[in-house]
Amino acid sequence: EVQLVESGGGLVQPGGSLRLSCVASGFTFSSSSMSWFRQAPGKGLEGVGCISTSDWSAYYLDSARGRFTFSRDNAKNTVYLQMYSLKPEDTAVYHCASRPSACSGWINDYPYVGQGTQVTVSS
User: Fold this and answer.
1) Tens of pLDDT, residues 40-95
2) pLDDT tens digits for 90-111?
3) Are 88 and 122 within 8 A, CB to CB?
4) Rg (CA), the chain
5) How far out from the chain centre does Cα 30 lie?
6) CB neighbour class for 25 (10 Å; exposed up to 12, middle 13-18, buried from 19)
7) Dmax of the chain from CA atoms?
8) Mean pLDDT over all residues of the chain?
């Protein structure tokens, strides 16, 4: 059974930082591209970015460039989203997703998506 379990969300003040984690199981993690999507209240899912099997990062959200970084630890089957300089508009549920091929910014390209972790940026 495939599982993607996110953690690390919470309440943070504007300008703060958070590191989200996503632990994967049930598939070959090292052969999978791992992406992050988010869904703000009342909005649809939007792609944040992806890290490929060769540790190459792609950004699907312009506002994430320079503030968010992606990393992975294949030994731990875990992908990370490090977020800096958080803004209220970053408030959303953040989901990780996996696919056994190249990165894609379209959620429909991902057969596996986690339940998400809530990030709230507020003073």
Assistant:
1) 999 999 999 999 999 999 999 999 999 999 999 999 999 999 999 999 999 999 99
2) 999 999 999 999 999 999 999 9
3) yes
4) 13
5) 16
6) exposed
7) 40
8) 97
State which H helix or E strand residue 45 sits in.
strand 45-51
59's tokens: 């950004």
Q: How far is 95 from 5, CA to CA, in rounded Å?
A: 9
Cβ neighbourhood burial of 38 (10 Å; 0-12, 13-18, 19+): buried
Q: Do 120 and 41 form a contact (C-beta atoms < 8 A)? A: no
What length does the chain have? 123
Q: 81 has which bridge partners?
A: 20, 70
State the pLDDT at residue 28. 95
- What is the rounded distance in angstroms from the CA atom of residue 27 to the CA atom of residue 84? 30
The residues facing 98 across adjacent strands are 34, 112
DSSP label of 30: G
Cross-strand bridge partners of residue 83: 18, 68
